[in-house]
Specification:
With 293 residues, the protein is of the alpha+beta class. The chain has four helices and twelve strands. It has a domain of 191 residues. The strands form two sheets. Strands 1, 2, 3, 6, 7, 8, 9, 10, 11 and 12 form a ten-stranded mixed sheet that branches. Strands 4-5 form a two-stranded antiparallel sheet. The longest helix is centred in the last third of the chain and has 16 residues.
Length: 293
Amino acid sequence: MSKSFNVPQQVAGRKLIVYKSRVDIKTVKATAENMKTQLFRKFIFMKPKPEEIHVVSIDKYFEPYVFVDGEYSIDYSKKWLHNIQVEETMQELTICGERIAPKSLTDSLDISCKIVQLTGTGRYKFVRKANIIFDKEWNEVGIQKLPFLAFEEQPEDILNQIEPQFKNDELTSEKDLELLKSKLVQRPPDILTIHNECFKVTERAVIYKPMFDVTVENTASKKRVHLLIDAITGNTASVKQTKMPKTKEAKEPKKPSTTKDAKKQDSVDATQTEQKPEPKMPQKQTAPVAKRL
């Protein structure tokens, strides 16, 4: 509904927040070593051998979230109508010099009564507030994902170390305002006059939460699992298994795979040998015979 009309708005500047880590790399490595056999377990009673499971790498990255807090308020007027039940004997009611005649009505129980219908113009104020947290896919998440924590004093320096694959430029767009506005800005029906209207964003931030991505490989099954560890709470979550990338090997020359192919190759070689022309032997030159005179 907010897309069909323009609403005056006040938008606060966007803040940049990077949470500090509470879990160090040694704790992450110990957690991965303790859990590595569970990551490749097929059944409760079937575990792979510990020597077959290896922690390959531990990478730190930052999971981005978008926080926005705001409100929509409108001060407006609309028609007001109210029915007042009066005595059956009332014939007329005078209010502010205006004479109003009661009306006879019958309710759902077929009981008749008299009412006086009052009309006028009422002035109202409607306010709606909301604060929302979005993940990197713009899905709403609960406030428990981002509790109040200590944050880095120089967030820009930390974010400059982020790998390009972990960055999402869309998070710095105006999409958070559009989603908040679509949720809050809804004008009441039957408005006669709008006295004041405003969409106000009081707080806006992009928050980066530190995480660890642990790569674990099973050399027996040739499979790989990514174990995600929260750098604040230490909670873990595993990503589905994938196959390990194949290593490139030198190609060997093809060999005959069957006896039939080998015989066929020998036959071709023999035919080629028979078809070779024999070399011509040089003829002996005889000395010329002298004629007797």
